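Module 6 notes. Inverse folding takes a fixed backbone as the condition and produces residue identities as the prediction. Think of it as a translation problem where the source language is geometry and the target language is the twenty amino acids. Below is one complete input and output pair. Work through it position by position during the lab.
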């Protein structure tokens, strides 16, 4: 699928992307309602995804594939559980609205806000993160910047046209009386799986 940048890590400023910012990200992401699992290897993430799918009785999953997810054999594990997995662009567009879980991999995390930065140039990438009630987002735990300024520094190096988004917790909506509702305009659950190991020789 088309991306704003095929090699985001090449744009990471030296010394500004580091696991030292992980603690701040984890705290702020949890405060925003995200659920976080941190594992050493991609293979360890397989059980997390499988257990979540079984617990929620998921029948249909849409996934934007990445090297990180492939290392974990996520799609194969879900199929063995009898879950239908759609990862082709056309199939994602057709089934995202009725899928139980969407799976994606984001570019990096932001400690200051507990946000994830996602390259959403491809329309299907956006559908996976917005339409299913549960969004599982993979991120490398070493790919964390301190704040928004650093995030935009990276984006400014790679962005020419397309779509880049920040994801912060599950969807939240408040009406005029300030009554907060979760999951009206997007996923009601954001599950972040942070993987320590580098895939393909880099942090992503």
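Target side of the pair, the amino acids:
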């Amino acid at each position: 699928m088309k991306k704003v940048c095929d090699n985001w890590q090449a744009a990471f400023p030296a010394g500004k992307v580091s696991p030292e910012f992980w603690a701040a990200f984890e705290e702020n992401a949890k405060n925003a309602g995200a659920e976080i699992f941190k594992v050493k290897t991609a293979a360890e993430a397989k059980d997390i995804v499988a257990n979540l799918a079984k617990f929620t009785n998921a029948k249909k999953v849409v996934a934007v594939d990445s090297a990180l997810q492939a290392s974990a054999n996520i799609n194969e594990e879900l199929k063995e559980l009898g879950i239908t997995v759609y990862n082709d662009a056309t199939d994602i567009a057709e089934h995202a609205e009725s899928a139980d879980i969407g799976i994606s991999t984001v570019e990096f995390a932001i400690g200051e806000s507990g946000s994830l930065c996602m390259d959403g140039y491809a329309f299907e990438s956006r559908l996976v993160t917005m339409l299913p009630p549960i969004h599982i987002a993979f991120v490398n735990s070493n790919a964390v910047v301190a704040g928004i300024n650093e995030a935009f520094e990276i984006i400014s190096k790679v962005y020419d046209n397309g779509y880049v988004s920040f994801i912060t917790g599950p969807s939240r909506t408040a009406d005029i009386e300030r009554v907060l509702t979760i999951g009206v305009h997007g996923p009601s659950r954001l599950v972040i799986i942070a993987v320590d190991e580098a895939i393909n020789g880099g942090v992503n």
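Reference fact for the lab report: The chain has a mean pLDDT of 90.
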